[in-house]
Amino acid sequence: MYFAIFFALIALTAVTVTISFFDLGRLNAVVALTIAVFKATLVILYFMHLRYSSRLTQVVVAAGVGWLFIMIALTLSDYLTRSWL
Amino acid sequence: MIPKQPRTHYLNISYGFKSWLFTTDHKRIGLLYLVSITLFFFVGGAFATIIRLELATPQGDLVQAETYNKLFTMHGVMMIFFFLIPAVPAVLGNFLIPLMIGAKDVAFPRLNLLSWYIFNLGALFTIYAVVSGGVDTGWTFYTPYSTTYSNTHVLATGVGIFITGFSSILTGLNFIVTIHMMRAPGMNWFRLPLFVWAHYATSLIQVLGTPVIAITVLLLAFERVVRIGIFDPALGGDPVLFQHLFWFYSHPAVYIMVLPAMGVVSELVAAFTRKSIFGYDLVAFASIAIAVFGFLVWGHHLFVSGQSVYAGMIFSFLSYAVAIPSAVKVFNWTATLYKGSVSYQTPMLYAFGFIGLFTIGGLTGLFLAAMGLDIHLTDTYFVVAHFHYIMVGGTIMAYLGGLHYWWPKISGRMYPEGWAKLGALIVFVGFNLTFFPQFLLGYMGMPRRYHAYPEEFQVLNVMSSAGASILAVGYILPMVYLIWSMRYGPIASSNPWPATGLEWQTSSPPPTENFEEIPVVTWEAYEFAGQE
Amino acid sequence: MAENHAMTPHALAHHFDSLDQQREAGTLGMWVFLITEIMFFGGLFLTYILYRSKFPHEFVAGSHALDIRLGAFNTAVLIGSSLTMALAVYYSQVGSRRLLVTYLTLTMLLGLVFLGVKGIEYTEKFEHHHFPGADFQWEDPAQAPALDGNPGAGKVDGRHVEMFYWIYFAMTGLHALHMIIGAGLIAVLIVLAVRGRFTAEYHMPVEITGLYWHFVDIVWIFLFPLLYLIGRHE
């Protein structure tokens, strides 16, 4: 089980490095970050046992990610709309 | 019948400095914090005294402009980071939360002690900055002044705040785990005292917000040492980014200061009206709502900083939204008074003070959240008056009220009621005389952070300075009689008010492990009817 | 096993009712701490996003000067160390002292390999004056060693490349600091494990150190594409 996750992570790393040599325009960042999110999810769910943890622990993790999102989104709401006027 | 003290309790079980400095008892750690923050409160108060003295006359005659800049900076830093943020959680919260939920201690007692040492280490750095010449950036450390131009001790102060932040994080982490894991059998979430709910909400803010100020201060220090353009526009950096990061923590930090105070007031109102809090669930959820909404409003500090108007509108709207749960609390406390048997003892006087002054502070906050009006009021004394109504009129009132209310539990002795009532009255009068004129000054256009001002503002400033001297008496008085009462006060029974809550079911002062045997809870919070 | 049972009462702190409660509290405490870490690194991620959108060409130029092979190698090393850490936690749960010590040691060694490679990368950056500050130099990008063509050539402001590098050093530096702390914690665990302090009933320290270690791995999983990969093209 742990080994399967390990090989999946290594494979994803290989994929993301390979893709980075091709120019996909704006998709570069999207693809690289999607793969990173996928890898992080694997680590959290299986290596850190979140999948088998209590609901409370899952809420804690969701809150952490949610707050990071709030911080980034509201700050960008300033920077992205500055040129509108 | 004269109440008797238990033969051994947490205060007399061991003696000597070592038994205090290496204690893991949450009650003793609460008292260690009490000593530390009282000290820093009087340091911060000393700066305030000089500020008010200087402002008694329009001319800048007592201190120079540079000195004045340092005075208000150090007043703010001391009061906010080293008094207001730890005041209620680290002293009363530490002492009471395990007692209230029926636990023997917090979840991580050694971490708890460590957080007190970290707190003092941070304070040491800041005190070093103070005595070696001070810092003059304002407590907000706005860049690029703080990174590039100020030649005062920004670095030492920043390091102090960085370190102290960890103590705040550890306290919050400890409370969250304690409240989740350590509740006595039968103590479910909706039987918890509202004080515990308020502290849970506070802890969420401490855990989610404090790391951001840590990284911000770290970047500020990095820029100051290495001279690169993190926030310096001359090198491509963005000073507004600093303000975003700073207020992402520092606005929620206001709720770190005021939420626990609201928790105290809920306890006081229930105990002295002998009624359950009206709409318990609403008040409990309002605490969580304030914690969550509190994170969404920081941009109202940036209305005149070049922030986009559209972002300003979002932040303005959300700032109005945060008023709703705050108002819910005020209404529910008021509704609790209705047909209650209100007794006007000292803690209740402070609770009344809190409700009134917090309402004024909160409503004037709405003035400032309105973008148009804010442009007129930004950086005037109106802002100063507003946040002092919240922090001094709100937090310190509740802190003093709580300290009196739980003093019998903490010390095993009653405080002198007559003196205490007088003290509460002096604080209330002194406070309003100090800060109400500042609303008028701000509205008339007197800017904050200047050591000299036009003569037309003098009358109101003299009133403010006079009020400050009354306020000082009101703060020194409780310190004197509370210390006096530790030796000479009448012995307190285990439940002198009488009130509900597990903390009143153990002896005063409690034994080291809090309860002779762990209680089993079968009743709801504030169930006065069921009590004999 | 009799010996193990004799150990258990000492492992339980006085204020907890049961080892289960103690273990849950410890785990929850670590998760909450990791939340603070998310927000701590989050401030840097936000800074990265802003400055990357402000100076896209400079970030591409700066990113090109990083060695993608070393970065990829380090990613693999760290994923491997996460695997060995997960196995160490597993063997602490089943109570196998020998395998616990083995996998803890492997984890620490892999961590040290990562730090070693990071050290090589840092040394190279210092030699090229890519460390931000007074000594920072950015040669004309047209002459810069380009791995596969340098699309940002000709419109790059060295001062803004410096901004890429301070973010690079702040992010990887703080990450490395966390690695060093993690390696230290694991060293303590190894000593305790050799002394037989962990049993099938009591292994909470191994578990929560494991959580910390995996978290540090996750941070790198994001740092690697942000710093090394997505700047390869505009």
Key features?
heterotrimer, A: 85 residues, mainly alpha, flat, C: 234 residues, 7 helices
Overall description:
The complex is a heterotrimer of chains A (85), B (532) and C (234). Chain A has 3 helices and no strands. Chain A is mainly α and 85 residues long. In chain A, helix 1 runs antiparallel to helix 2 (27-47). Chain A starts with a helix and ends with a helix. Chain B has 15 helices and no strands. With 532 residues, chain B is mainly α. With 234 residues, chain C is mostly helical. Chain C has one domain (45-229): Cytochrome c oxidase, subunit III, four-helix bundle (Four Helix Bundle (Hemerythrin (Met), subunit A), Up-down Bundle), CATH 1.20.120. The model of chain C is unreliable at 1-9 and 142-153 (pLDDT under 50). Chains in contact: A-B, A-C, B-C. The A-C interface holds A 2-3, 5-6, 9-10, 13, 16-17, 20-21, 23-25, 28-29, 32-33, 35-36, 39-40, 43-44, 46-48, 53-54, 56-57, 60-61, 63-65, 67-68, 71-72, 75-76, 79 and C 24, 27-28, 31-32, 34-35, 38-39, 42-43, 45-46, 49-50, 53, 68, 72, 75-76, 79-80, 82-83, 85-87, 90, 148, 210-211, 214-215, 217-218, 221-222, 224-226, 228-230, 232-233.
Shape of chain C: elongated
Gap from first CA to last CA of chain C: 62 Å
Contiguous helical run count of chain A: 3
Largest interface: A-C, 43 and 45 residues
Present the secondary structure layout.
The complex is a heterotrimer of chains A (85), B (532) and C (234).
Chain A: H1 2-20, H2 27-47, H3 55-81
Helix pairs in contact in A: 1-2
Chain B: H1 17-21, H2 26-54, H3 65-101, H4 109-131, H5 145-149, H6 154-181, H7 194-226, H8 239-273, H9 280-293, H10 309-337, H11 346-369, H12 371-377, H13 381-411, H14 417-444, H15 458-488
Helix pairs in contact in B: 2-3, 2-4, 2-15, 3-6, 3-7, 3-8, 3-13, 4-6, 6-7, 7-8, 7-9, 8-10, 8-11, 8-13, 9-10, 10-11, 11-13, 11-14, 13-14, 14-15
Chain C: H1 2-11, H2 19-54, H3 56-64, H4 68-94, H5 97-127, H6 158-194, H7 204-229
Helix pairs in contact in C: 2-6, 2-7, 3-6, 4-5, 4-7, 5-6, 6-7
Explain briefly what this protein structure is.
The complex is a heterotrimer of chains A (85), B (532) and C (234). With 85 residues, chain A is mainly alpha-helical.
